């Protein structure tokens, strides 16, 4: 069985349970994305492997909610974020970092291997045995690549629900008088679940620390309609977030289609990495002064 993994354009993510996609809808979205590349997924293998620098990650098996929540694929926004993290364009040194709807958790796990890593990385996904089993396997199998001084944890979490168990992970990371919350929240390809925007923003409100340096990093594939992305950004602004950086193209699209990472990557066509990177949008947000 081939170890090739198709890195398409549908989310490396999962929504809250109120926004499950039925299998037919998920498959239709996936097929639409394949059209953008003129490819098909007939050669894709279950639980396929991707090597990215020191990491080896797998996608969830094609079973149950892993299919309906699109957790059985790794997609381009995760690659974009990973490249930006590798290049130091997403500064996370010494931070507490949490990723929602992590899927494979490629961006967060890569951050944990940097020479100057975050102090804490928490990867989360919908509390399903198959989805979380794969995520935990990725964390465990890459533990040897994590830089000393960085703690990595895996937790089940449904967007919009009580996040107290996630906040408890922060207790050893710094002085308790600091406002609670994480220094960075990562959202890789979650915006297409538009009915979950409110739940996502509830989670950000609970998890992102009310500090001037706290950041939320968001990436989406261009298959996610512009109006859907804009709706999320506007809702976030109403919650007190300011968007301070984005892709230089229209509606936050990445305009640099050259892959500038230097880490070795196996399981995907290297020549396609720049193309896939250019099929993404991204934004960086922080709390407005009024909402600190």
Structure in words:
The chain has 292 residues and is α/β, with parallel strands linked by helices. The chain contains 9 helices and 12 strands. It has helices at residues 23-37, 65-68, 76-86, 106-112, 129-141, 164-167, 197-207, 226-238, 273-277; strands at 7-8, 49-52, 55-58, 74-75, 96-100, 120-125, 151-156, 184-188, 215-221, 241-246, 265-266, 280-287. The strands form 3 sheets. A 7-stranded mixed sheet has the order 7-6-5-8-9-12-10, with helices on both faces. Helix 3 (76-86) runs parallel beside helix 4 (106-112). It is globular. The termini are far apart. Mean pLDDT is 85; it is low at 1-28 and 34-44.
What is the topology?
Blueprint: E1 7-8, H1 23-37, E2 49-52, E3 55-58, H2 65-68, E4 74-75, H3 76-86, E5 96-100, H4 106-112, E6 120-125, H5 129-141, E7 151-156, H6 164-167, E8 184-188, H7 197-207, E9 215-221, H8 226-238, E10 241-246, E11 265-266, H9 273-277, E12 280-287
Parallel strand pairs: 1-4, 5-6, 5-8, 6-7, 8-9
Antiparallel strand pairs: 2-3, 2-11, 9-12, 10-12
């Amino acid at each position: 069985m081939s170890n090739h993994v198709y890195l398409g354009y549908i989310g490396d993510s999962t929504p809250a349970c109120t926004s499950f996609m039925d299998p037919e809808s998920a498959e239709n979205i996936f097929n639409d994305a394949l059209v953008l590349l003129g490819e098909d997924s007939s050669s894709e293998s279950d639980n396929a492997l991707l090597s990215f620098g020191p990491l080896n990650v797998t996608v969830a098996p094609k079973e149950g909610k892993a299919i309906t929540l699109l957790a059985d694929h790794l997609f381009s926004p995760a690659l974009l974020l990973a490249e930006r993290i590798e290049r130091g364009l997403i500064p996370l040194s010494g931070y507490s970092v949490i990723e929602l709807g992590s899927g494979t958790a490629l961006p967060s796990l890569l951050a944990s291997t940097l020479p100057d890593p975050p102090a804490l990385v928490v990867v989360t996904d919908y509390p399903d045995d198959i989805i979380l089993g794969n995520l935990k396997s990725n964390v465990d199998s890459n533990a040897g690549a994590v830089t000393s001084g960085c703690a990595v944890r895996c937790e089940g979490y449904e967007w919009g629900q009580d996040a107290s168990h996630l906040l408890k992970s922060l207790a050893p990371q710094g002085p308790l008088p600091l406002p609670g919350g994480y220094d960075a929240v990562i959202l890789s390809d979650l915006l297409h679940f538009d009915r979950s925007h409110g739940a996502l923003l509830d989670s950000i409100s609970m998890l992102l620390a009310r500090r001037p340096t706290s950041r939320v990093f968001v990436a989406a594939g261009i298959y996610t309609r512009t109006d859907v992305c804009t709706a999320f950004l506007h809702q976030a602004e109403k919650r007190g977030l300011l968007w301070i950086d984005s892709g230089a193209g229209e509606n936050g699209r990445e305009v640099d289609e050259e892959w500038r990472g230097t880490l070795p990557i196996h399981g995907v066509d290297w020549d396609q990495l720049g193309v896939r990177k250019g099929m993404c949008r991204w934004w960086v947000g922080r709390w407005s002064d009024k909402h600190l």
